[in-house]
## 1
Amino acid sequence: MTEGPPDEYRTTRWVGVGCITAIAGFFSGAMIGVFVAKAVGSFRGCKPPAGLPACDWHLYAGVGMLIGVLTLPVLALSRLRSSDSAAGKSN
């Protein structure tokens, strides 16, 4: 029977995965939010000012950032936890 890494390494791995996915979720959520803002603006017939991607893009980007920074780390850490428990390691 092979032993997994000590708890300190596992905790470090979880913190690393959580931080990296939070940053990725922040930016990817913002990009998806701006895409939604463009679609909504197109549907409403809104013409954005010159140099801006869409009308009210900052509101959609902010909501997308919040959703991304919360959901992506939760999904990644839940997958990491399920793979640890499948390998026979305790939580």
## 2
Amino acid sequence: MRELDNQKSVGLLNSIMEFELAGVVRYTHYSLMVIGPNRIPIVDFFKTQANESLLHAQQAGEILTGLEGHPTLKVAPIIETNQHSIAALLQESLNHEAKALELYKKLLETVENASIYLEEYARTMIGQEELHNMEIKKMLRDYS
């Protein structure tokens, strides 16, 4: 085992928190913008994503304070495209989830062989993000 780079780990966890908090705002906005015959299940999907993003932000914050870090008050930038078709919202969601996946992979690279707990956390989150990507891709198939 190598020594954990505490500072880099805390920095990445803060970036994850910022990104997940942006997901809360993003998915809440999306849930309000959905119209059409498929509205109800897609609104439910976006609300679930918003709640999950909040949980993920809280988990990252708990870990980073456990590493004696200070949790951020920032939210990652959110670009308003004013594209509110279901296909556009799902594509933006897919882009968001892909970036989240990148952050968790960076965390895994940083903590690998230094902390089993943080490795398992990162791997679990990578698995969840990969699953989200698959689900959104399935939903998008209907719009291609």
